[in-house]
TrEMBL record:
EC number: 2.6.1.-
Highest rank taxon of the organism: Bacteria
UniProt feature coiled coil, ranges: none
Name of this chain's protein: Aminotransferase
Species whose genome carries this gene: Flavobacterium aquariorum
Enzyme class: transferase
Cofactors required: pyridoxal 5'-phosphate
Homology family: Belongs to the class-I pyridoxal-phosphate-dependent aminotransferase family.
Swiss-Prot/TrEMBL keywords: Aminotransferase, Transferase
Domain Aminotransferase class I/classII large: 32-381
Keyword Transferase appears in the UniProt entry: yes
Molecular function via GO: pyridoxal phosphate binding; transaminase activity
Length: 381
């Protein structure tokens, strides 16, 4: 009998992978499912982006293997995007590495810097992939609390009381997923100082900063951040290109080179046409963000109405692609709550528990459903 690797004993199938199978099964049985669970943008990229991809199909060498570091014009576009939108200067030749989605970067960074037994600070609640990748590489997850009473920001007094001697990486992500907490430059400054004090690699996961957020920020805006920090970013939410798998990791040449050593052994470069589309997307001006956010604003208003109809208390300060809401008093299980709605009303909402124990008592709605469908969900109650 063929046995699996021991590493699989300590991870489970990604929640959305298994849960969406169940949702699809219900849909195949004729149930009128409204999926408000997953943050997969239903809006299209701009026409200029799609035209760039079509045109690229006829370019010489378009269908060959591509550079592990991406096209020079793609790295230049990423550098210009950071300069124009965050005021951060980056050398496109050595401080930017395009990725096949930023989720890929979580694995590459972990493989580049973690040895078996190293500790990793992971936000609770936070993106589940931080934990699963940490386990896959044989490192040890150490969860730090994020709570509403502290505006979903770290408690530095509590962090200082932890045994940090084995901590190698600290994952953060602002705007925060799943809560939508904005964070601040003051918070980033504290985090950089904390990372320097304890010799920790700080990694900010930053895919949501242009969705319903009038103050986009980058961790790399903090003076000296490149000494101890990397930032992941993505075109998935910003430009409605989730299925295209275009991300980036940014930081000092030394740190980026370490990630490249892993990446160059894992893939053979991003498809040329997708890179050309990404170059065009990165040129988008403020009107693109304004038009996209106009749609999301309307959806958020309706989604908040739905949450409140369920007796939930919405976290109004949240930005990004989701609405985070506290369940009514007396609800013992977020998962039981959403399952009841799924089976009885055929609406899929994400339970906060999949993001960590501090997500118990909360649910998350994605703004990736058309207004009429959100209204239909409201009407079902």
């Amino acid at each position: 009998m063929i046995t699996t690797a021991k590493r699989l004993d300590i991870i489970e199938e990604y929640y959305f992978s298994s849960k969406l199978r169940e949702v699809r099964q219900l849909a195949s049985e004729g149930k009128p499912i409204i999926n408000m669970g997953i943050g997969s943008p239903d809006l299209k990229p701009s026409k200029a982006v799609m035209d760039a991809v079509i045109s690229a199909m006829h370019d010489e060498n378009a269908h060959q293997y591509q550079s592990y570091q991406g096209l020079p014009e793609l790295r230049k576009g990423m550098a210009d995007f950071y300069q124009n939108n965050y005021g951060v200067t980056l050398d496109p030749n050595v401080e930017i590495l395009p990725l096949i989605g930023s989720k890929e970067g979580i694995m590459h960074i972990s493989m580049a810097f973690l040895n078996e037994g190293d500790h990793v600070l992971i936000p609770n609640p936070g993106y589940p992939t931080y934990s699963s990748v940490t386990n896959l590489v044989g490192a040890v997850p150490v969860y730090y609390d994020l709570k509403e009473v502290n505006n979903w920001e770290p408690d530095f007094d509590a962090l200082e009381k932890l045994d940090l001697s084995k901590v190698k990486i600290m994952w953060i992500g602002y705007p925060h997923m799943p809560t939508g907490a904005r964070g601040s430059l003051e918070l980033f400054e504290k985090l950089v100082a904390f990372a320097k004090k304890h010799h920790i690699l700080l990694v900010n996961d930053n895919p949501y900063s242009f969705v319903l957020n009038d103050k986009p920020m980058s961790l790399l805006q903090v003076e000296g951040a490149k000494e101890v920090a990397l930032e992941l970013n993505s075109l998935s939410k910003t430009f409605n290109m989730a299925g295209w798998r275009v991300g980036m990791v940014l930081g000092s040449a030394k740190l980026i080179d370490s990630v490249l050593k892993v990446k160059s052994n894992m893939d053979s470069g991003m498809f040329y046409g997708i890179q050309k589309g990404a170059v065009e997307a990165l040129k988008s001006d403020q009107s693109w963000f304004d038009s996209m956010n106009e749609v999301y604003k309307k959806r958020r208003v309706l989604t908040e109405q739905l949450a409140e109809k369920l007796g939930c208390e919405v976290y109004k300060e949240g930005v990004g692609l989701f609405v985070w809401a506290k369940l009514p008093e007396g609800i013992a299980s977020a998962e039981d709550f959403i399952d009841k709605i799924l089976y009885e009303k055929h609406i899929f909402i994400t339970p906060g528990t999949i993001f960590g124990s501090n997500g118990e008592g909360y649910i998350r709605f994605a703004l990736c459903v058309k207004e009429e469908k959100v209204q239909e969900a409201i009407d079902r109650f």
